[in-house]
Description:
- By secondary structure, the protein is α/β, with parallel strands linked by helices.
- It folds into 2 domains: 5-153 and 293-338, Rossmann fold (3-Layer(aba) Sandwich); 155-289, Phosphofructokinase domain (Rossmann fold, 3-Layer(aba) Sandwich).
- The chain has helices at 18-31, 45-48, 98-107, 119-130, 155-176, 191-199, 214-226, 263-275, 295-313, 333-338, 348-355; strands at residues 5-10, 36-39, 59-61, 88-90, 93-95, 112-117, 135-139, 179-184, 204-206, 232-237, 279-283, 319-324, 327-332.
- A 7-stranded mixed β-sheet has the order 3-2-1-6-7-12-13, sandwiched between helices.
- β6 (112-117), α4 (119-130) and β7 form a beta-alpha-beta unit.
Amino acid sequence: MSVKRVAITTGGGDCPGLNAVIRAVVTVGKERFGWEILGVEDALSGLIDLDYRGPRGNRWLELEDVRGLLSRGGTILGTSNRSDPFRFVDGARETDVSDRVMENFAKLGLDAMVSIGGDGSMAIAQKLIAKGMKIVGVPKTIDNDLGATDQTFGFDTAIGIATEALDRIRDTADSHDRVMLVEVMGRNAGWIALHAGIAGGADAILIPEIPYRAEAVADMIVARRASGKNYSIIVVAEGAKPQGGDVSQLEARLGEMPRLMGAAHRVAAALEDHVGSAMRVTVLGHIQRGGSPSTFDRVLATRYGVLAAQLVHEEQFGKMAALRNGAIVAVDIAEAVARPHLVDPSSQIMNQARALGISFGE
């Protein structure tokens, strides 16, 4: 097999650094290997339906299309978390249209695909690989929860944004002697909360990996007040849950993962019962996913893209670019989706945070 036509997709939530990967794959693919490269619109939407017409459309990418993309957030290809061909929403039901994707892939004369995404996108890629599609993966997610890699691109930018928010909120908390809660993203992983919380000087960090007791957090607030510290900052991961309780989420919709919402407000309500004063909640939401990627994420995304192109050229399909001990290496996509990358409650960084007096609601 000689690779000549390669598709590239960006799936799941948008993330700083997606465009940097696209730029690297297109630059290496065209200049070194002479490929034709098709940008597929809105994750796999452009392969599920070749007549799909969003604002961008499937398009053959040229070098001029990727100039100036390093600093640009989002993705020029568009993305979607509702284009799983194995759970495609058709009216009021989910249906499997993966055979149609395989047919359209062949109809376009494509030899291989670079799939850029998180755990959901990699799981879909693995299923398509089982059906015979030639795929190389690139790990993306601000949540940093994808297995087999030390870090995903987008995470560094997200924790930088969250840390800046904590710095600003502390000024208000100090001025008004208030307890301020800041909810961050991360789904079922507490990496954003943990790193931003440490960097932002949080007094408590509530993460999904450790179900919290509101009483323990309240005791921390009372103790701080007794020592003359009249304000407290609490970082709450969106997937945090109380001991014996479930995560706060909206009703799941067809073809989508459940949307997490309300974790910090639930903590605030519980604390008011114990502390007897009003809480203030800030939900950072999607600002953590947008904007220009950090220098680290630009470099990491570029390195991932270069290796992804090399893996396609070498026909090492079923592989994903990964960061391990500072080096960019190839790992099996199956390994990446086998087990999520979660915070270990007994890890060194967690024990160091405890040594600083940070409460995890334990």
